Amino acid sequence: MRNIRNFCIIAHIDHGKSTLADRLLELTHTVEKRKMKAQLLDQMELERERGITIKLQPVRMLYQYKNSQEYILNLIDTPGHVDFTYEVSRSLAAVEGALLVVDATQGIQAQTLANLYLAIDQGLEIIPVLNKIDLPASDVPKVSQAVMDLIGCKQEDILLVSAKTGEGVEKVLEAIVEKIPEPVSKKSEIGRALIFDSRFDDYKGVMAYVRVMNGSLAADDKVYFIGAKAKSEIVEVGYFTPVIKKADKLNENEIGYVVTGVKHIEDCRVGDTIAKIQGAINKEQDYKKLALAGYKEVRPMVFAGIFCKEGSDYQHLRESLEKLKLTDASLVYEPEASAALGFGFRCGFLGLLHLEIIQERLHREYDLDLIVTVPSVAYRIKSQKSKITSQKLEAESNTGGYRVIHSPQELPNAGEIEEVLEPWVKADVVTPKEYLGVIMELVQDKRGLYKNTEFLSQDSVILHYELPLSSILVDFYDKLKSASKGYATLNYEIADYRPAEVERLDLLVAEEPVEALATIVYKDQAYKAGKKIVESLKKILPRQMFEVKIQACTNYQNSGKNKGGKIIASAKIPAMRKDVTAKLYGGDVTRKRKLLEKQKKGKKKMKSLGRVDIPAEAYMAVLKK
């Protein structure tokens, strides 16, 4: 037990986390030099290309401390992006210490702070590491001072390294052994383990990445998944080097994998507890007492429609999503049909990066050309039919009598709605102080509520805001980067659900509603949004042989006596017109008038009978900003 050290690396995106892990693997001779490659723990091609960690990866290293005693170092390389905060929090619960990696050229950024606060909440030992000190742009004194102000450490506690060249990495290994506390033995007979990740292996089935908290786990042990309420029998156990290596058993405080024997990856949830089934415990209530703290079901917060450009690829898309679901349990999808785009799926994601990753993987791994609709959030509505009162709703609580809707088509008419709640986030923006004014203006335009400002250093500040999740979905991040010339960084977490004054904005083309173009907008912004979409459609839609009316409408009803709604913006596309008088060479004016009247009657008939097919390009041009 004394010779085990469990730790993880936390950092903002692109601060050199995976490169530092490579050097640690090299120095401990875990991987042979001939098999070494950059970002070894990043298994996906997409991760290496973008330089980000998407799927966390554990590895066991053996280290000879000052050429004497041998230590087992269990490292978990965690994702750095805000979308995967829950996975990071469960990884932190599986370790006793963390390396806080800060880029010496960029300093402390938003996700650095978020992950640091998670680590402090878990009571972890923090070892600050300044990376990229070999670069000409690095400012070691300034960034060191910011780190000291942030965590209250001394100058000599900060390790200066260059993960690229290997400078100072040996000192990091020594600090891990010296500073990170050894795991505490709990001396419990009941085997328990925390699941911090899972994946589906083509040959072994569902594999859980675990930290054994009490007792031990071995093949043929009967186990119970407390959160999922599922029983199973362990097929195999082992650890990562970083390839999987089979072992006889996983002992207390060791990190490794368990081939669970469960059929569905949904039963192997991140944060759940595996408990060994024993004769004395046979009731569900008894197992609940053994559950480790911190487990919650991850709910998708961002929704978007995914459709094929070619309608014949629908079945291929279905099969591809089923295969992706095996490696990513947080992906949620259900079939959806659109008049404009055909058959597809309504998918739920953890955030925008998660959406982007799934889209890219579908394109690369399954060769699918896709159309992705503009993302939306999950609203909660209470109609007049349900008179259930509810206190303040936290994001992770149940819906308390509210119905959850994921698309504008599900939003009832204004007369039927009693209350609508939308998700709000706590957002932290880290920026150089010279861009403070323009960023505050941007956030307030997005309906942000200012909380407070903290100075991280003389030149860097952190702004705390609360704002609706829908405000930051589409183009907020791009505008933030433009306003700060690329220096500002954003981190956010779901806060709660709050009342929202929203309504559905329908688009009518040739007096027929186009469901796929409907959006949910704030009531005070409905006119502005409607006018913008109408003008965009006027430029994009092809001209017809009859005049086409484009209208933006609120409170639209498609049936009954009150069919129609309040038109708030309108435009007309003039008809294509043939010159029917070209063949005339003179004569009486009544001949000319007779032909024009005949054409006018024909146009009127076409207008009443004609339908306008809206191309997918027009749909995307309007909605995809």
Low-confidence stretches: 386-398
Domains, number: 5
Q: What is the helical fraction, as a range of percent?
A: 25-40%
Gyration radius from CA atoms, angstroms: 29 Å
DSSP strand content: 25-35%
For the sheet with most strands, the description reads: 8 strands, antiparallel
Shape: elongated
What is the name of the CATH class of the largest domain?
Answer: Alpha Beta
Biggest sheet, spatial arrangement of strands: 11-10-16-7-8-15-12-13
The name of the CATH architecture of the largest domain is 3-Layer(aba) Sandwich
User: What is the tally of beta strands?
Assistant: 32
Measure the end-to-end span: 55 Å
- Helix segment tally: 14
Average predicted confidence as pLDDT: 80
Describe the structure.
This protein is of the alpha+beta class. It has 5 domains: 4-179, Rossmann fold (3-Layer(aba) Sandwich), CATH 3.40.50.300; 192-290, Translation factors (Elongation Factor Tu (Ef-tu), domain 3, Beta Barrel), CATH 2.40.30; 302-373, Elongation Factor G (Translational Gtpase), domain 3 (Alpha-Beta Plaits), CATH 3.30.70; 379-499, Alpha-Beta Plaits; 503-623, 2-Layer Sandwich (Alpha-Beta Plaits), CATH 3.30.70.2570. 25% of the residues lie in helices and 32% in strands. It is built from 14 helices and 32 strands. The strands form 6 sheets. The chain has an 8-stranded antiparallel beta sheet. A 6-stranded mixed beta sheet has the order 2-3-1-4-5-6, sandwiched between helices. Strands 22, 23, 24, 25, 26 and 27 form a 6-stranded antiparallel beta sheet that branches. α12 packs antiparallel against α14. The protein starts with a strand and ends with a helix. The model is unreliable at 386-398 (pLDDT under 50).
